[in-house]
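dude i think i finally got it to work??
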Amino acid sequence: MKFGSIRWQTISLLAIILTFSLLAGAASAPAPSIGKRIVVSLDGDPPSLDGHENALISGGIVLPHLYDKLVEFDANSNIVPQLATSWTTSSDGLTWTFKLRTGHRFHDGTPVNAAAVKASFDRMLNPQNPFYRRTLFEAITRITVVDDNTIAFSTEKPYGFVPNILANPTASIVSPTAAAKVDFRTFGVFPVGSGPYFFREWVRGTRIVLQKNRNHWAAANNNIDVIEFRPILEDSARAVGLETGEIDFVTSIAPQEAKRLGGNSRLQVFNMPRVRIQGVYVNVTKRPFNDVRVRQAIAHAIDKKAIVDTFLAGFARTAESPLPRGVWPFKAQQDFQYNVNRAKQLLTEAGFPNGFNATMWVPVGTYVASQQISEAIADQLRRVGINLKLEVMDATQWLTLLRSRNQQQSNLEMTYYGWGTHTAEADYALRLVYHSDNFAPKCCNRNFYSNREVDQLLDRGLVAVNDRDRRAAYERAQELIWRDQPWIYIFAVNHAVVAKRGFKDVAILPVEWIHFRDAQFD
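look at this
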């Protein structure tokens, strides 16, 4: 949906008024200050700034500044404190207890205590609110306020990944007081958290501006007073912004541009690991994609190495498993080698000796070089008789189509697609995407893949009490999913980030997120 500039200028002004009126109610609230300001380019406009509506990577980059979570990931995907200073698990593995920082407040001045944390999770878990990633937390059966600064999460069966899911951006702690005053759509435009930056304005499609919260416990860790996020869809425009000095930091850019910009002495390039698989996603319930031989034929027809070498310039590697390398317990699988003759043979066996026609969605504004890579895929598939009509669309529109339609409603045939493991563990990487209980719109199995043995293995891995049993379940699941090719895996991508020289301690995390909570800029 497009919004007129007048309407969004009005919302922007209202946002400033609302934010500062909220801050005025808090005795310790920070006054606006003029200081170091950075301009950060995003590859798209977030659909929402609600801490519970983590839909696109662009939003996940903004959210860590507005909100705190109980725990966070460090650069090695270890769990480290945030709102929680320490945590323990019961001897039976069924209860995780977290001790909270004392004296911290939301941006509206209300206290961040155990009751507020529980209320925030209750909001996110409420099925009347459309936060589709709540399924990530379905192992949690009870949340208990132990005392003002202690909260406990209970599960029906042992679940060793509780800290990992609480480090996901969807577990952001929103102000329950502010959220209760408006509906979730309005809160997504006027967000209130307790993070190191508070919301100042959002001009849709132009900028999101955040102001430093000087009363945050980590305020001394960075020297950046204002962050302006700008959604810029075109890689070339982001590159020009860096070269002219208008942009200070680009969170995502085409690898070829990153490689070229590395020759500029005023810029620095970050090529960092990232646990994301990308490829061609097909609706396995629609003919001809309901035949595994067709899906395997597509896998043989795509020259994955050529795509990686041509479009990703050292910022990716060909996919080896549905589980990204770096997520335990990754197990490499035997690749579907590029083989046009084998692809044609499989198509003939499936009853399509002359190939077929199909439509492939191409989202712009969320994946690097998505249109160019999709065009290359179309060229390669044409050699085996598969003729694709590429339908290019805005990433927000694309995600809505994928998320909102059930199996009967979906008109998905094929799409360029990726999945990042935002919790650094196999349950998130596999169950949300491949378990038949998670068909859209409930969650993230949006191509309606169903394999009973895979379901059983993912259920077993979820509650296994030791690493040996958990590993066995997830390794077997990888084998079956790879054989079935519910989407055709092409590569695992790295971060391609470019910035002005002078940035230090920016968090560029394997779990996809980038934030400036502890960053310095000289």
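The CA atoms of residues 23 and 29 lie 5 Å apart.
im so relieved honestly
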